[in-house]
From TrEMBL:
This protein's record includes keyword Protein biosynthesis: no
Ranges that cross the membrane: 12-33, 40-62, 68-95, 116-136, 163-184, 205-229, 241-263, 287-307
The protein, known as: G protein-coupled receptor 65
UniProt-listed SUPFAM superfamilies: Family A G protein-coupled receptor-like
Organism whose genome encodes this protein: Cyprinus carpio carpio
Matches recorded under InterPro entries: GPCR_Rhodpsn, GPCR_Rhodpsn_7TM
Subcellular location field: Cell membrane
GO molecular function, one term: G protein-coupled receptor activity
Entry membrane topology: Multi-pass membrane protein
UniProt keywords, alphabetically: Cell membrane, Disulfide bond, G-protein coupled receptor, Glycoprotein, Membrane, Receptor, Transducer, Transmembrane, Transmembrane helix
Family that this chain belongs to: Belongs to the G-protein coupled receptor 1 family.
GO CC term (a single one): plasma membrane
Length: 308
């Protein structure tokens, strides 16, 4: 098929050539920031590690599959590990920003580097166990046709796995991220003292993180569910092609994470300002300082300090 013979090898090559050095650079910078005590850098380190583990398997995916079942299982395991660690760490970043803005004093102790490390360890353990339970070797490898992962028609035991992946691996993280950034969006939008340019900067940052999760992982998980119900239709070619394209789209995540980090850094280097906002809540006046600050070469960091 043209898609597998030309589009896939070129895409895999591009992802490897660009993604490997980009994630190595992001890993190094995030490591430096973590040593300075930045808790968000812990999540960025884990994002880069998850991307690199998958990127290192890309040269194997470039060719038709002559490597056997064992290598197939390892590569598929790394693929799904990248999917779900990315979703979980983006969710962790969203929750951290939500707590920093909506509850800046109440959860200060929660937003520390040690907590981020513990959350990251828990995320890796959960993902490894989840993949160990849901990756069935006989459902992802066809020894006769030398096909790995994309077996058509869908094996019966894989149907419940696809639904589980959709709910646990995408829907729940998507709802968490959507809720957190909706609350952040509302808090920033209500701040009438914030300059329009700064407001746009914040909204673009939030939108970029949402797109990383929704655009990269949404289509492939939706196609997983559609395959359960539509694969036996008279003309399933569109489903096959659509699924293949969505898998490639999900792999853009390996490039999106470093680009997201660069975007956040550029935003942080923009004009820093302190904005005084007076809000009335339950008849009381609260002074709220909205600070958009950066440390040299640090991440875009948004926080609110309440003074009653």
């Amino acid at each position: 098929m043209i898609l597998e013979q030309y589009m896939y090898p070129e895409a895999y090559s591009m992802f490897f050539i660009i993604g490997f050095p980009a994630n190595c650079l992001s890993l190094y910078v995030a490591w430096v920031l973590m040593k300075k005590g930045n808790n968000l850098a812990v999540y960025l380190i884990n994002l880069s590690v998850g991307d690199l583990l998958y990127i290192l398997t890309l040269p194997i995916w470039i060719m038709m599959w002559p490597y056997g079942k064992t290598i197939c299982v390892i590569c598929v395991f790394m693929l799904y590990t990248n999917f779900y660690t990315s979703a979980m760490f983006l969710s962790c970043i969203a929750v951290d920003r939500y707590l920093a803005i909506v509850y800046p004093l109440k959860f200060c102790t929660f937003r520390k580097r040690k907590t981020a490390v513990n959350m990251s360890i828990a995320a890796w353990i959960f993902t490894v166990i989840f993949n160990a339970v849901t990756v069935y070797p006989d459902s992802i490898y066809d020894e006769e046709d030398l096909i790995c992962l994309d077996l058509f028609p869908l094996p019966k035991e894989q149907r419940i796995v696809n639904i589980t992946r959709f709910v646990v691996g995408f829907l729940i993280p998507a709802l968490v991220v959507g809720f957190c950034y909706w609350r952040i969006y509302s808090a920033v939008k209500k701040n009438q003292k914030l300059e329009s340019m700064e407001r746009r900067h914040v909204f673009r940052l939030l939108g970029s993180i949402l797109l990383t999760l929704y655009l990269c992982f949404g289509p492939v998980h939706i196609m997983m569910v559609l395959r359960i119900f539509l694969e036996n239709c008279p003309y399933p070619n569109w489903l096959f092609i659509g699924y293949k394209v969505c898998v490639l789209l999900a792999m853009l995540n390996c490039l999106a994470d470093p680009l997201l980090y660069c975007f956040m850094s550029r935003m942080g280097q923009a004009s820093a300002s302190n904005v005084l906002l007076i809000l009335r809540r339950r008849g009381k006046k609260d002074l709220i300082f909205l600070n958009i600050i950066t440390i040299k070469n640090d991440l875009f960091y948004l926080y609110i300090v309440y003074i009653t």
